[in-house]
């Protein structure tokens, strides 16, 4: 659903640039990490660290959907400062991250549309003031299913709600004259109790997260974060963590924190709770369980098994299996395109349920990784987020440029990553993938894809200077081309990152 929102109405403001969906980031999490939990607590931090980095990001995207064409070419750069303290008195410390991002150039071109915006449910409408609003209808999935049957005559009510056009699910910067954002993206206190062998660690404040069911954006310039408490300890050899969060900072705004709201924006989400455990067995098998809850509106359950086996000297095989289940109440839903009515509707479920299965095998050598993954989503589209502006990623190896998380969609991906250091070119890395998804014929909820098939080709090339005055300077290019029926997208990201200071 969010992929449709991102492509349907391109937002000319900074959040487009700060979008973190790219193959490079996803692969690092999906295939090589058994769990990202341990890396977040810095339990072995012995010294203070202070880093200043510069990022430069050019983003180009061309989208053709039905009768509309969008062309975006934007260029931003920014500075980030990260401070991580040691544990003073072997007990307490503080981590702070802040930064600023500024446009170098921003531009958007929207082609003509054969459809009239005025009066149509689910389309953009330009107000006399020049501000774009989005008028949409709220209906339950059960009602839509009945109306979609050819033997039943019924109609959808006229638009019942209106909101400011915000299809990237991020508050806008206010006006087109606002060309920069500065923000504190992390500011938390960390405390450590217990022994070195069995520490009990507490983090309280504004922090970045990369848990299995709830994570923040790892944007190239300014990331998002959440405010709350995260606990971590070891129980009978298992790494156990518990978090409660009640506010967040989104990546495209200077606002420090703001409350959670439901996807329908009708209700406040007071707290998001996450409980998880990871255990490594003696044979090297790693298992992980996690559950999350957004008040009584949405619950998620996640399980993962990861195993790495040696096949020969310098060659290993990893197997990664995941399963997720989500259950939403209080009319939980999400935005989707209803092809039967040619409308864009916030679809509610009286009793939302969705699940997915994901299995990936990867063959590792000293300098390469070849992988193949399969994902199946059932019951309903998988809803990524716990709240309206949630910037979490679908926790699947099929979370690529698109998420491949439609109802009853079976999707697969094949790809290769290669490190050229083995042939005398250290610092050069490339990767590429091909993915394809297909669903049985669905008559009701069809997001963009009226033939129920989608596919993409994507990848990256990155090079890091190994010596000289600019040692550590990284240049990268990420690309993706996605195709559906009457819908095509091409995206390129050119990145430059340099660590100005490291203390």
What is the first-to-last residue Cα distance?
Answer: 43 Å
User: Quaternary state, please?
Assistant: single chain
Overall CATH class = Mainly Beta
Averaging pLDDT over every residue, what do you get?
A: 77
Question: What structural class results from the helix and strand content?
Answer: mainly beta
How helix-rich are the residues, as a percent range?
Answer: under 10%
Gyration radius from CA atoms, angstroms:
23 Å
Helix tally equals 3
Unreliable sequence segments: 1-40, 109-124, 164-178, 444-449
CATH topology: Porin
Pfam families: OprD
Protein name: Outer membrane porin, OprD family
InterPro entries: OM_porin_bac, Porin_dom_sf
Family: Belongs to the outer membrane porin (Opr) (TC 1.B.25) family.
Account of the 3D structure:
The protein is mainly β. It has one domain (2-50, 116-477): Porin, CATH 2.40.160.10. 4% of the residues lie in helices and 53% in strands. It has helices at 2-8, 23-30, 141-147, and strands at 49-65, 68-84, 92-110, 123-126, 132-136, 138-140, 161-164, 180-194, 199-207, 225-235, 238-249, 258-261, 268-269, 272-280, 286-294, 298-312, 315-328, 333-338, 343-348, 352-364, 368-378, 410-419, 428-438, 453-464, 474-484, 487-502. The strands form 3 sheets. The protein has an 18-stranded antiparallel β-barrel. It is globular. The two termini are 43 Å apart. Mean pLDDT is 77; it is low at 1-40, 109-124, 164-178 and 444-449.
């Amino acid at each position: 659903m969010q992929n449709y929102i991102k492509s349907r109405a391109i937002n000319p403001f900074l959040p487009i640039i700060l979008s973190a969906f790219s193959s490079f980031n996803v692969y690092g999490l999906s295939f090589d990490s058994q769990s990202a939990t341990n890396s977040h607590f810095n339990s072995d931090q012995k010294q203070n660290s202070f880093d200043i980095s510069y990022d430069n990001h050019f983003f180009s995207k061309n989208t053709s959907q039905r009768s509309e064409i969008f062309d975006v070419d934007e260029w931003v750069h920014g500075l980030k400062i990260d401070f991580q303290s040691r544990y003073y008195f072997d007990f307490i410390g503080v981590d702070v991250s802040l930064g600023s991002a500024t446009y170098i150039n921003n531009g958007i071109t929207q082609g003509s549309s054969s459809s009239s915006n005025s009066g149509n449910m689910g389309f953009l409408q330009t107000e006399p003031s020049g501000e774009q609003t989005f008028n949409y209808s709220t209906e339950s999935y059960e009602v839509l299913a009945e109306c979609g049957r050819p033997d039943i005559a019924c109609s959808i009510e006229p638009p019942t709600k209106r909101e400011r056009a915000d299809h990237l699910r991020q508050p806008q910067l206010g006006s087109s004259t606002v060309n920069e954002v500065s923000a504190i993206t992390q500011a938390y206190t960390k405390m450590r109790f217990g022994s070195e062998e069995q520490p009990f660690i507490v983090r309280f404040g504004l922090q970045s997260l990369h848990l299995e069911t709830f994570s923040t954006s790892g944007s190239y310039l300014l990331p998002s974060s959440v405010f709350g408490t995260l606990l971590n300890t070891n129980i009978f050899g298992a790494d156990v963590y518990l978090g409660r969060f009640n506010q967040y900072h989104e990546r495209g705004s200077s606002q420090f924190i703001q409350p959670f709201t439901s996807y329908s924006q009708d209700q406040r989400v007071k707290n998001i709770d996450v409980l998880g455990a990871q255990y490594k067995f003696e044979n090297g098998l790693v298992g992980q369980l996690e559950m999350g809850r957004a008040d009584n509106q949405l619950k998620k359950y996640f399980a993962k098994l990861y195993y790495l086996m040696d096949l020969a000297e310098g060659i290993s095989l990893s197997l990664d299996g995941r399963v997720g289940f989500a259950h939403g109440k209080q009319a939980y839903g999400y935005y989707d395109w209803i092809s039967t009515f040619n409308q864009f509707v916030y679809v509610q479920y009286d009793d939302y349920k969705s699940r997915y299965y994901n299995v990936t095998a990867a063959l590792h050598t000293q300098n390469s990784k070849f992988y193949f993954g399969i994902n199946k989503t059932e019951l309903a589209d998988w809803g990524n987020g716990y709240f309206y502006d949630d910037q979490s990623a679908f926790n699947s190896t099929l979370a690529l440029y698109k998420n491949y998380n439609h109802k009853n969609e079976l999707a697969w991906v094949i790809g290769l990553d290669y490190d050229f250091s083995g042939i005398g070119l250290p610092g050069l890395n490339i990767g590429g993938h091909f993915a394809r998804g297909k669903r049985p014929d669905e008559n009701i909820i069809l997001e963009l894809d009226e033939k129920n098939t989608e596919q993409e080709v994507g990848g990256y090339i990155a090079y890091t200077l190994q010596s000289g005055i600019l040692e550590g300077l990284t240049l990268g290019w990420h690309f993706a081309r996605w195709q559906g029926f009457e819908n095509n997208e091409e995206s390129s990201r050119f990145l430059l990152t340099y660590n100005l200071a490291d203390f």
